[in-house]
Specification:
With about 290 residues, the chain is an alpha+beta fold. The protein has helices spanning about 5-15, 45-50, 60-65, 75-95, 120-125, 160-170, 175-185, 185-200, 205-215, 230, 235-240, 255-260, 275-285, and strands spanning about 20-25, 25-30, 35-40, 100-105. The protein has a 4-stranded antiparallel sheet with strand order 3-2-1-4.
Length: about 290
């Protein structure tokens, strides 16, 4: 990796700089050239990770950030979560070239808990693999909704706890970034789970989702002079059917499939509903 961001991180390390290096939709916080924190709008923040892990609560985290807490959270759990947050943000920021800008400033409050050299950071991001490879490249984590398949073709699919958690949260409307924030997990961890679930045939590939959404768009009407004004602009009719929907929102893929591909098959058992299978598996694991 010889991007502008990597070169700048190495330069700041050599000069033992302290401050904030902004890049794209995120930033790196450095203390004497070492990376002590990182954030990105596409990844789950350390506060959410810490609260989900039970390390603190929202009020305790607010007091910590404000410097009014009697005792700062510490220990291996905080160090581990801080490392995960830095690696998570760095993996996405390094994948998207963007102008960098360094501003000197005071040391970040997490300097006592987390210190990563740029070399270690780059090595970890390289170990995770090419961010542009695979069915779900990193650039899609906040751009494409994760859609479950309507029917499971395989008879037996074994899921890990993390995969089951992600699959249960998939609703055909939200992206990987939203899933990670909602579950309090790293974006990279949810990205891996989505890739594995797609390979298992439980989640639609992003290309399939994009094609389905494109096919559902109404065709161009051309010149509508003298015609029906309602036919020229189908948007109001769609909004009337769903007044609570946001402008330009896309309905779930599952609902669209039911409308266009609901074919009655005589003398054949219908497969069980996916949600029922998930609840049943969760109940079995609870009693195991």
């Amino acid at each position: 990796m010889d991007s502008e961001l990597v070169i700048e991180l190495r330069r700041l390390e050599q000069q033992r700089c302290t401050g904030v290096l902004t890049v794209g939709d995120g930033a790196f916080h450095l203390v004497e050239g070492a990376i002590v924190a990182a954030d990105c709008r596409r990844t789950t923040g350390l506060d959410r990770l810490a609260i989900t892990a039970g390390l603190t609560d929202a009020e305790g985290w607010r007091r910590t950030r404000a410097g009014t807490a009697d005792q700062l959270p510490s220990g291996p759990r905080l160090e581990t979560l801080a490392l995960l947050a830095v690696f998570d943000a760095a993996y996405l920021l390094l994948a998207a070239p963007a102008p960098v800008e360094f501003r000197p400033g005071p040391p970040h409050w997490l300097a006592y808990a987390c210190r990563i050299t740029p070399g270690a950071l780059i090595h970890e991001c390289a170990r995770r693999g090419d961010p542009a490879a695979g069915v779900w490249p990193v650039e899609l984590v906040d751009r494409v909704a994760v859609v479950p398949v309507r029917r499971i073709r395989r008879r037996r699919v074994v899921l890990t706890g993390g995969q089951a958690e992600v699959l249960a949260a998939v609703d055909a409307r939200h992206s990987i970034t939203w899933l990670a924030e909602h579950l309090g997990r790293t974006t990279y961890g949810c990205l891996l789970a989505v890739r594995e679930l797609t390979a298992a045939g439980l989640i639609e590939p992003p290309v399939t989702v994009a094609l389905a959404e494109h096919a559902a768009e109404p065709p161009a009407t051309g010149d509508t002079a003298g015609g029906d004004p309602a036919a020229a602009d189908p948007a109001p009719a769609a909004q009337d059917r769903n007044p609570g929907a946001a402008p330009n929102s896309t309905p779930p893929l599952r609902r669209r499939v039911r409308q266009t591909a609901a074919v009655a098959v005589p003398d054949r058992w219908e497969p069980p509903d996916r949600d029922v299978l998930i609840r049943l598996r969760a109940a079995l694991e609870e009693f195991a």
